[in-house]
């Protein structure tokens, strides 16, 4: 399907099971570099253009970190208003310009299809960091790697698992991409737990159904969280037609330790793409879960760096050269020593 070298990563539709396994194999190889046990300069001299036209903390910083960890340099723009897009420049022109500076691009933009449009003007690999409500392929890959690793602790696999997707399934791009990736696995049971009006779009339900998975579409958490993976999401207020409309749903589905005890399985793994909305009126994943060993949200973050390193290594065709460019780590590192 995807040969990786020089290719864009725009959608999970480009990935089959072999591609996913190739990415995971390279991601696992990146672990000692992410932990600073080793260092590599394999991308020395390469420049990443990290273009974020929508708010982001972890996706933006982890793309940059991943490129830096491979020895490359990062140039960044943040926000629409501080870019020439605010002056009417087309995505195509911006892409032609950025191509003159960079060897790879990571991009986030509020419009569905925008990253693919940008890629038509770009002659270096473009990786989608989220295009409106549409897709978030790198998040889906890091979520899937997290699921594989978390279930692995209980000798369980993705095939045959039960996942509950909770919250804003209409606008949440991470659950769209993750559901599509899970179509490459077998006998998954999905509980789509969302209020009326924020349910999973039909085209995703159809894809999951066509993959032979079981789907339960429900509008309350009670009785529907006894899953192996419980994946909570944020109400994507920035995508609603009005703030009043978003306010109607805020705080509707909250998971706390008490809810976990009452409705989850003893070892249900709790995931969230983050940021969790911790404002009092939302509090969708309570801080009282922070000491719950099955809260995997910060392990997701670590896996995100590995996945993004893997994608850069594969698209820039250095996955097999990482060790060859290894250098010493002379400085003290908490991560290396932990
Ligand atoms: C998500 C996103 O931006 O789609 N966050 C992320 O990338 N880690 C989810 C969200 O913003 O709620």
TrEMBL record:
Residues 8-148 form the Aspartate/ornithine carbamoyltransferase carbamoyl-P binding domain. The keyword Lipid metabolism does not apply. Keywords: Pyrimidine biosynthesis, Transferase. Its EC number is 2.1.3.2. Residues 159-314 form the Aspartate/ornithine carbamoyltransferase Asp/Orn-binding domain. It catalyses: carbamoyl phosphate + L-aspartate = N-carbamoyl-L-aspartate + phosphate + H(+). SUPFAM superfamilies: Aspartate/ornithine carbamoyltransferase. It comes from the Bacteria. GO terms for cellular component: cytosol. PANTHER family: ASPARTATE CARBAMOYLTRANSFERASE, ORNITHINE CARBAMOYLTRANSFERASE, MITOCHONDRIAL. This is Aspartate carbamoyltransferase.
